[in-house]
Amino acid sequence: MQFSRPALPADGPATGDLTYADVFLVPAPSTVASRLDVDLSAPDGTGTTIPLVAANMTAVTGRRMAETMARRGGVGVLPQDVPLDVVADVVARVKASHPVLETPLTLGPEDTVVDALHLLPKRAHGAIVVVDGESRPVGVVAEADCRGVDRFTQLRDVLSPDVLTLDADVVESPAGLRAAFETLHAARRRFAPVVRGGRLVGVLTRTGALRSTIYTPALDAGGRLRIAVAIGINGDVDAKACGALAAGADVLVVDTAHGHQERMLEALRVVRKLDPQVPVVAGNVVTADGVRDLVAAGADIVKVGVGPGAMCTTRMMTAVGRPQFSAVLECARAARALGRHVWADGGVRHPRDVALALAAGASQVMIGSWFAGTYESPGDLVLDEQGRAYKESYGMASARAVAARTTGDSGFDRARKALFEEGISTSRMYLDPQRPGVEDLLDHITSGVRSACTYAGATTLEEFTERAVVGVQSGAGFEEGRPLPSGW
């Protein structure tokens, strides 16, 4: 990446640190004919095919998020406060998920409307497949079927029995996704159960069929979906790392808010002695020295960002942090000199921010609160006073997160730690009616990143980082680029 000469001194570096709103990309000559000619695979050895990571926040990444991210080419990171037995269960379930078909929501005919209403918000496809004792579909229930009836009515009395099913062997054939889309389109259905030998194996939507022709799943060597697991730097690091690796983690993330400290370096040395055969990510830092020390201790990838996240109050509490664009730029240069990579963690509000992080040299971008307000995040869907749907999000240094991480401590120790939280304990993350699912946001973000690459004349992320030209703008310049909400 290089800076636009009119904006900065001749030697290139800015005189002050910059965040994403302070900079813009300059268009360059390009021979890239289509956005779909751009390969978004991350070059950092994690096996992802889009450079997006669902952050290791309790309100962001669980089984559904990890599964959906991997199906579309990204990766989700399970938080460090998840017990190892639960980690093993979640990893196993993600690995058992189909790489193309969505995992269905299922109930039996004897289950009730209230059961369906509790389950429907768990997936973006918004329908439940009613199955018999042999997992054969006997009907479909959507939210509309549950209106105006007693909540304890059995589903056999409200289901739609006219079920269009797709054959899994056909869907998995080379031309199967196009054929499935055409079948659904002709039948004016947006959703269908997929069966093999009559038994339910998944579901497919029209949009899902289209997406599966654009996205390539992030798969391990056995053809299973990838998933990452985070561990902390306190307690028995060896046992936690061994447990995550034994569970089948494809990426191990050693995580703490202040990554440039001796305890992190010790934890990395412990992890490296285990000879993990997966990439090791560590952070967070915001300086080249931090990158160099973490790499020397055993990190393959360094997580960059202190205080830019929407749920983080660190900068207001401590004045510690650094504007994210400059932090990523400096850390990526240091990592690249060592043959390593960085992930940009936090501070993205728009697709442009993701593109700028990649231009600055990040191999991937972590997203937290933006993904918290989706169907796939772990929280329960709640309606506010105006009927708008939201989920609760909270920072990982907040009182709520600290309490979850310290359940094994004494009451006295837990109370002492609760005095020092540095994150928002709860915030409403409203679902965007236009993009309520994480896949909708992935479409939104990757579309912007692909277009940014074409403007730079790049067909890969490595080319994008090399060719991108960045300029510095005023606040008025940033406002000029914002679309007007309703006209003049």
Question: Would you kindly provide a written description of the structure presented here, covering whatever features stand out?
Answer:
With 488 residues, the protein is of the alpha/beta class. The protein contains 18 helices and 20 strands. It has helices at 63-71, 84-96, 113-119, 168-171, 176-186, 206-211, 237-247, 262-273, 288-297, 314-318, 324-337, 351-359, 369-372, 399-405, 411-418, 438-456, 461-467, 475-480; strands at 2-3, 23-26, 52-54, 75-78, 106-107, 127-131, 137-142, 166-167, 191-196, 199-205, 228-231, 251-255, 280-285, 301-304, 341-345, 364-367, 382-383, 389-393, 427-430, 469-472. The chain has an eight-stranded parallel beta barrel with strand order 3-4-11-12-13-14-15-16, surrounded by six helices. Strands 1-20-2 form a three-stranded mixed beta sheet. The protein has a three-stranded mixed beta sheet with strand order 5-6-7, covered by helices on one side. Strand 11 (228-231), helix 7 and strand 12 (251-255) form a beta-alpha-beta unit. Helix 9 packs across helix 11 (324-337) and helix 12 (351-359) packs across helix 16 (438-456). Residues 6-12 have low confidence and may be disordered.
